[in-house]
Write a structure and sequence with these properties.
Blueprint (H helix, E strand, L loop, with lengths): L1 E3 L6 H9 L6 E3 L1 H17 L25 H12 L3 E4 L2 H15 L8 H13 L2 E2 L2 E3 L7 H12 L4 E3 L11 H6 L3 H31 L9 H5 L4 H13 L16 H4 L1 H22 L8 E3 L4 E3 L7 H28 L2 H4 L16 H18 L20 H33 L8 H9 L12 H14 L3
C-alpha cells in the first residue's frame, strides 16, 4: 500500500508503481484531499477579484490576454486541447503509471487549486491501473505540458485509454494549467533511471570483487588507512564494500602485484563520485516528487496566489548530468578490467580465457560488445544542460532540458548493464578455469549464483545468451 499525501512519497514507491500491472494499492490521505479542496475554493474566489495567470488570462505570451466571463467555461478545455500535441512514440506503461502517481501526489500537496473532481478521477485511474495514451515528446524541462494535457483529456473522455479507463469528468476553467503545471512525466523517468543506476552501481561492487579474485588483486588499494586519508563519502563506502565482499577485515593475503591496474586500484576513487552523485540525485527527486510546482501557487495559509518558476527543473537536469558523467567513468573501469581478464599476464590463463585447440577465441567478442555499449553510454553522458531554448515569443527564454537528461539517463543505464554483464561473464569463466577457492568470502555467494546460471561450457560458442543472463543477474547481485 503506497501512501499518497503530498509529503511522503518515496522514489521506491515510484518504482513499485511503474512495475505494477493492473490495480495499485494506494492510501490517499483524506486530510490532503481536504487541503486540496480548500485550495480549489480559494483559487475560484481569487479569480473573481484579481488576475490569476492561466485562470483569468491566457498562458505563455498570452499572459496579458484576459479570458472573458462568457468564455470562461470553455477556457480549460481549449487550453488542454491546444497543448495535447504530444508526438513520437507512446510513453511506456511503466513511465505512465509512475507519472500519474507522482502527479496525484503533487496535487495532494494542496497548492494547485485543481477541482476535487479531477483529482478524484486521477486517483481512480491510478488505483484501477487505467493508462491513458500519452506520447513521449512534448517537453523541454519547463513543464510536461503535452503529456499531462493528454492525460487530462483522457480523464474528460476526449482522448483514448490504452488500458481500462474511468468515467469522464468535467474540466473547470482553472483546471487546465493547474493540471499541466508539473514535470511529473520527466520526474517519473528520472526516478526510474536513478533507481536503476543505483542498483547497477551496487551490483558493480560485486562484479569488481569477482574480477579482483580472478586477477589476484592487491588488497592495499581498499585498506581502511588509505581511505581515511582522503575521506570522500562515496569513496569510503566503496572501499568498505569491497573489503566486506572480499573478507578483508582481518589480514588479507598479499596480491600478485605490488600495484594493480587502475581498473582495480582506482575503483573506489572512481566509483565514489558515482555513488555520491546518485545519492544527491535521489535527494533531489525525493523533494521534487513531493513538491508543489504549479504556477500559480495557491496558498491557503496566505489566502493568495503566487506566480513563480517552480516549473523550471535545473536541480533535476544538473543532477542527472552529473550522474551520467560519473557512471560513464565507472563503466570505463569495467571495460578496463575486462581487458585485464583476457590477458594471460594477469590471469595465468590462456589469452581470451580460451580453451580447446590453439587459436581459439574464447571470450574475445566480449571486448567488442562492451566497447560498443560504452560508446553508447559515452553519447548518453554528454550534458543536456548546455543547450537552451527561447519559446512563446521570447517570454520563456530558458529551459533546463531535464526531460532530455532523464531520457539519456535511461539510455545510460541500459548501456552500463551491458558493460557489467560482459565483465561478469568473463570473471565467472576465469574463476571456473582457475578453480578458485573462494572459501567463506561473501563474494562466494555471487560466484555460485552466477555460475548456476551462466553456461559452464568454455569451448568457442556464441555468448549472446550468457550476456543476457549476466545482465539479468545484476539485480540479484546488488542484494548480496
Amino acid at each position: 500500500m503506497i501512501r499518497v499525501d503530498g509529503r511522503t512519497l518515496r522514489c521506491a514507491d515510484v518504482v513499485t508503481a511503474a512495475s505494477t500491472e493492473g490495480p495499485l494499492g494506494i492510501d490517499v490521505s483524506i486530510a490532503a484531499l481536504r487541503g486540496a479542496e480548500s485550495a480549489w475554493k480559494l483559487a475560484e474566489e481569487l479569480s473573481t477579484r484579481r488576475i490569476v495567470y492561466g485562470r483569468t488570462t491566457g498562458v505563455g505570451a498570452n499572459k496579458e490576454d484576459p479570458v472573458g466571463e462568457g468564455e470562461s467555461p470553455d477556457h480549460g478545455l481549449r487550453l488542454l486541447r491546444s497543448h495535447a500535441g504530444g508526438s513520437g512514440d507512446v510513453m511506456s506503461p511503466g513511465q505512465t503509471r509512475a507519472m500519474m502517481l507522482i502527479r496525484l501526489n503533487q496535487l495532494l500537496a494542496g497548492r494547485a487549486g485543481l477541482s476535487p473532481v479531477l483529482i478524484g478521477a486521477l486517483a481512480d485511474a491510478v488505483r484501477t491501473g487505467a493508462l491513458p495514451l500519452v506520447h513521449r515528446l512534448g517537453a523541454i524541462g519547463t513543464g510536461d505540458l503535452a503529456p499531462l494535457a493528454e492525460t487530462a483529456l483522457a480523464l474528460t473522455g476526449e482522448r483514448p485509454w490504452l488500458t481500462g479507463g474511468v468515467p469522464p469528468v468535467p474540466v473547470q476553467a482553472g483546471d487546465a494549467l493547474a493540471f499541466m503545471s508539473s514535470n511529473a512525466a520527466t520526474l517519473a523517468e528520472a526516478t526510474l533511471a536513478a533507481m536503476r543506476l543505483d542498483t547497477l552501481t551496487r551490483a558493480s561492487h560485486v562484479v569488481a570483487a569477482l574480477t579482483y579474485i580472478a586477477l589476484d588483486g592487491n588488497p592495499e588499494a581498499y585498506a581502511t588507512p588509505v581511505h581515511e586519508a582522503r575521506p570522500h563519502a562515496g569513496q569510503v563506502a566503496c572501499a568498505a564494500e569491497m573489503r566486506r565482499l572480499l573478507g578483508m577485515e582481518g589480514t588479507p593475503k598479499p596480491g600478485r602485484r605490488i600495484q594493480d591496474p587502475f581498473g582495480l586500484r582506482a575503483f573506489p576513487q572512481v566509483q565514489g563520485p558515482a555513488l555520491d552523485a546518485i545519492h544527491y540525485l535521489r535527494d533531489v527527486l525525493a523533494v521534487e516528487i513531493n513538491a508543489s510546482t504549479e504556477n500559480p501557487m495557491i496558498s491557503t495559509v496566505h489566502q493568495d496566489a503566487y506566480h513563480h518558476a517552480h516549473f523550471h527543473t535545473a536541480y533535476v537536469s544538473t543532477a542527472l548530468d552529473q550522474v551520467r558523467a560519473t557512471v560513464h567513468q565507472v563503466a570505463e573501469l569495467s571495460v578496463a578490467r575486462l581487458g585485464d581478464l583476457v590477458e594471460p599476464e594477469f590471469t595465468g590463463l590462456r589469452p581470451f580465457l580460451a580453451a580447446g585447440p590453439s587459436g581459439s577465441s574464447g571470450v574475445m567478442i566480449l571486448e567488442y560488445v562492451a566497447h560498443d555499449a560504452l560508446t553508447e553510454l559515452r553519447q548518453a553522458a554528454l550534458p543536456a544542460t548546455l543547450g537552451t531554448a527561447v519559446v512563446s515569443r521570447g517570454i520563456e527564454d530558458h529551459a533546463s532540458f531535464s526531460t532530455q537528461a532523464a531520457r539519456a539517463a535511461t539510455a545510460a543505464g541500459a548501456a552500463y548493464q551491458q558493460v557489467l554483464a560482459c565483465e561478469l561473464v568473463a570473471a565467472v569463466r576465469a574463476l571456473r578455469m582457475r578453480k578458485a577457492d573462494l572459501v567463506s568470502l561473501p563474494a562466494r555467494d555471487a560466484y555460485e549464483t552466477s555460475a548456476a546460471v551462466l553456461d559452464p561450457s568454455v569451448e568457442d560458442r556464441p555468448l549472446t545468451d550468457d550476456i543476457a543472463r549476466a545482465g539479468a543477474l545484476l539485480d540479484t547481485l546488488a542484494r548480496i
